[in-house]
Amino acid sequence: MAMLSALVVLTSGVGAYTYYTVSDELHDSVHSELENTARLQAEELTVWLDERSQITRMLSQFPVLDSKDPTQISAFFDSEMANLPDDFVAIHYVDTTSNEVLASSSRERIGGTALGEDLSYIHGSLQFSNANEVAVSEMYEQGDETHISFVSPVPDAEDRAVVLVSSTAHLREVFHAPFDGSFVQIIDREGIVEFDERDVSSGELYGEQGSQALTDGFAGGIGAYEAEANSAFDEEHVVAYAGAEDLVVVIHAPTSSAYHLQQTVVTDIGLLLAVLLLGIGGLTLVLKRNMLEPLGDLETTLNRLRGGDLDVDLTTDRRDEFGSVLGAVGALRTDLVNQRRDAEVYSTVMDTAAAGDLTARMDTNSNSSDMRTIATSFNAMIDDLESTVGSVMEFADEVQLRSDHVAQGAREVNSASEQVAQSVEQISHGADEQAGRLTRVSEEMDTLSAAVEEIATAADQLAANSGEAAELGADGQIAAEGALDGMDAIRDETRSTVEDVAEFGALTEEVSDIVGVIGNIAEQTNLLALNANIEAARAGEAGEGFAVVANEVKQLAEATTDSATEVEALIEDIQSQRETVVTGVERMKDRVTEESESVETAIDALDDITQRVEENNTSVHEVTSATDAQASSTEDVSAMVQEVASVSEETTAEAQTVSAAAEEQAASINQVTTSAQSLAVNAENLQSLLDQFDVDVDEAGSSVISDTVPNTVAGVGVEPGVQSPAVSDGGVDE
């Protein structure tokens, strides 16, 4: 009930909030719609006025107006009218002094008055300060239509202007209010109604001078507000406005029409909220009678079941969901009774197993699947536990038996280890004596080896000196042959240089010929420059520019002549030096030929010296080889003696190591014996503990360690009663 009451309060609050929110939103929506309409219409009016002002200014600047020919101007206006929008009525060419129409697209207006004498202007005036100004008149009646005129002065003609007359019928198609009974007005800065959608107050003074719509609108503002009945509108209404340059667009809409949708929606929301609250109230009564009271009774019954009272009354005559729930609760109670009975039986079986009887089992024929699962899992667990305990019993028996065998084997191994230690001591003493004698033999062999090595060293030094002499002779021969090759290369290079110098001489002669040609061209250019100066002097002032060019050409020719002379002098110097170079190169070629013959003689002498040194070197190498062989044999004997001594020392060390290992093994065997005795005691204790369990395990094939644990002691491989034949770590057999 508390929840339903909260639902009623929440629904009322949400409904009230929605009622006022929608009302405010619709109210703001009306104002926003009127503001947007006023703004769009003000923008449309501004564009319409600007477009026609621009057309008028362009027409006034066409060159045809400079002719001041009425016939041409009228024909021009006729052609322009064909391209202008339909709301253009006429184009006049006017004398602004007399206000007379001099030319027009409307021939009947020629000679008449263009603008009314009392016509005022909503923008600008006929006193123009520049040719780009356009004056816009107020709207005025002419015949059955309302017109507006645009006036633009003709450039460079102070008393001439172009007047474009346009109908305001287009504005009537554009300017209309969105609600029934609403209307649009356009007011100028004088407070005059220039346009009235109703055609009621056009040309009259606006009824609400100084209102927010005018003051804010002429400042460029846009807005909407509510107003009481006044001289502008005779009932309560909404006013929307928007500025359009020197005009203000004002929309008047009666509140009864503007807020009609708001009132309708708010009324519908109120009715819907009332119906909703009545529905919630009726639903509350139904729920209380058919659901809340039975739920309370069901809660009481379930609490008694949860408290352990399985005798509660669950009978009902209902055939709905509550009847089904009570039937399910009755089935649940039956299951609880059966499970309680099974749990008591299972508890007895568990107590029996806990007392040590591992042959006890639970009955798996329970009506409850959960209890059957528990019984099956318990029986499987007891089976595993019974098997494990039986295996542990057999293992305990086997451990006790094997611990006795291990203790006996450990005593036998201990005795064998003591015998091995004594034998190793004797081996170690004999090895010490052998090592001493081998050391003295090794010292004598070292002395003999040192003497042989000194002889070999002297022979090696002699062989090295002979080899160096042979190498020096060979190097000298190679150097001499290289010098001879260099002489040949110099001789070839000298011959090539002579040929290049000769070719260079021929090239300088060709350059000299070219320089001569350049000199001749420069002299002829100089003569042409002189002739040009003479012709320029004859031409007088007309030839001054030509004379300047001729002087430049003359100076260039003189500079070219001087350069050619200098180049010719340089070529003569080069030719003179070329002859000197050729003479020097010829002399150098002769000297190179003479020196080449001397180098060949030196090469022959070096060949003889090298041959003699190589023969001596061969003899020395034979002596060195014999000495090296003797030294090598001596070193081999010494090395063998040292190796035998080393083996003897290693034998002594290994014997000592084996002796120490035997002692350590004896100590370890004592520890194993102690541990085996302790293991036997623990096996007896384990057997007494396992005797408390009752198990039914097949004795055949259940041995745990007899087939898997080898009959060994500490990894040594000794069976009980058998003595070890060797010590594996020492590597020495008895």
From TrEMBL:
Question: Matching SMART domains, A to Z?
Answer: HAMP, MA
User: Mind listing the GO molecular function terms for this protein?
Assistant: transmembrane signaling receptor activity
Instruction: Give the transmembrane region(s).
Output: none
Domain (HAMP): give its ranges. 289-341, 347-390
Q: Which UniProt keywords apply?
A: Transducer
Species whose genome carries this gene: Haloferax marinisediminis
UniProt KW DNA repair keyword: no
- Protein's GO biological process: chemotaxis; signal transduction
Q: Which SUPFAM superfamilies match?
A: HAMP domain-like, Methyl-accepting chemotaxis protein (MCP) signaling domain
Segments carrying the region annotation (Disordered) are 714-734
Q: Which family does it belong to?
A: Belongs to the methyl-accepting chemotaxis (MCP) protein family.
Q: Cellular component GO terms, alphabetically?
A: membrane
Full protein name: HAMP domain-containing protein
Instruction: Supply the Pfam families for this chain.
Output: HAMP, MCPsignal
**Sequence ranges assigned to domain Methyl-accepting transducer in this UniProt record:** 409-645
